[in-house]
Specification:
The chain is of the alpha/beta class. The protein is built from four helices and six strands.
Length: about 180
């Protein structure tokens, strides 16, 4: 059964609309059959095939907040971007509502890449993703298994891998000139 989404057409973001980009709502499906809602941002007057970026997060937020702002900013810099609501959240489909599934939400990033890769104005060899907060981990999962993703940004303060003490030690060591090349 396909989700019938009710998409808001008016500007409903928590940030001002840029006059440097065009904006429109789009939808696409993930491999679990869930319909995802997204805001597409394109640089005004851009021609040819553009590099593209899919943006999602923070955990518990919707595309009208931080991910939309990131996407709009990257569109101002020449990328075609989408900010999407993950499954079970915001304008996207899926039940029960307001839950997270690492498998499904990783697939949401891959579905966003699927969508971007078939757009006429996107260079499918130059697609990246940005995961904010809790979605940083989902972005890393997607990048690890999807070779179409050429660049990944994980903008997060929380490291679920347990490597934070090692990274902190590496940074502290690198700042000291006498131990710049120390091995950990």
């Amino acid at each position: 059964m396909e989700d019938v989404l009710k998409l808001t057409e008016k500007w409903d973001k928590t940030f001002p609309k840029s006059e440097k980009v065009d904006h429109r709502k789009v939808t696409f499906h993930n491999r679990y059959g869930i319909t995802l809602a997204a805001d597409l941002y394109a640089p005004k007057g851009a021609e040819g095939r553009l590099p593209a970026i899919a943006v999602c997060g923070p955990f518990g937020a919707v595309k009208e907040q931080a991910s939309g702002l990131y996407a709009q900013e990257m569109a101002e810099r020449g990328f075609l971007t989408i900010a999407f609501d993950p499954s079970f959240t915001g304008e996207s489909g899926g039940t029960p509502r307001y839950v997270a599934s690492p498998d499904i939400n990783t697939e949401d990033f891959q579905a966003a890449v699927d969508f971007l890769s078939v757009q006429d104005n996107v260079d499918p060899e130059r697609i990246g993703i940005i995961g904010i907060c809790g979605w940083g981990g989902m972005a890393l999962n997607a990048a690890a298994i999807d070779t179409r993703i050429k660049a990944t940004v994980s903008s997060t303060m929380y490291d679920m891998t347990g490597s934070t003490p090692r990274v902190t030690l590496m940074l502290r060591t690198a700042r000291r000139p006498d131990t710049r090349h120390a091995r950990l």
